[in-house]
Amino acid sequence: MNPGRERSETRTPSVFWALALMILPVINLAVRFKVTDAEKFPRAGAFVMAPNHFSEIDPVLMGVLSWKLGRAPRFMAKASVFQIPGIGWLLHKSGQIPVQRGGSVRGSEPVKAARRLVERGQMVVVYPEGSLTRDPGMWPMRGKTGAVRIALEQGIPIVPVAHWGAQEIMPRYSKRLRLFPRKTVLVKIGDPIDLGRFRGRNLDPATLNEATTLVMAAITQLLEDLRGETAPAKRWNPVEHDQKETGRFEA
Could you state one GO cellular component term attached to this entry (predicted)? Predict the structure, then answer.
């Protein structure tokens, strides 16, 4: 993996150094990343990274991936996690963004936080699905509008990313890690999604849903390439299957 020349975020002393010291040794022993099109990952400037989501270890893997590619990862995290002693402090200090349950980015605080990211030229990781996919085959399910809302409101790119292999380390909703033997995680980074047609339009639900459909299609295409399979023609919608959109469920 070639992180390129722009590594200012990882070289600047910050709380991320402490996090990297704790996490990287374990992940480096347990995981081998195989990244396709790493050069498409923005080395500078604000952008939204939009990955697929099917394992609870995904944020750790995507955070490590971003760090290895020279960027300090910031996530949209459930607001309740910020109340946990110690963890909440780390989240605040590392610039993570609190959101309400279900992945909503409504309200003043997330908007202010996103604006600060833009001003500082930082990235943010937003899972468009809002929670682990309910799709039985672990394909991306119906997306929520948080990622495109931030991209459109702040005028920054949104970069789709797909990964596959995390389920071998931590199966969906499992509480057990399988760190050894070492696993390979495949990653493919896509081109920034062209949201030009939506800029200047009223960001009503119809517009945001239309833009989100483009994002989910791009992520799915990347995952098809990684898996060498074709995703179901119809995207999984939890509501149509009497499933909750947040929390655990029985597959």
Answer: plasma membrane
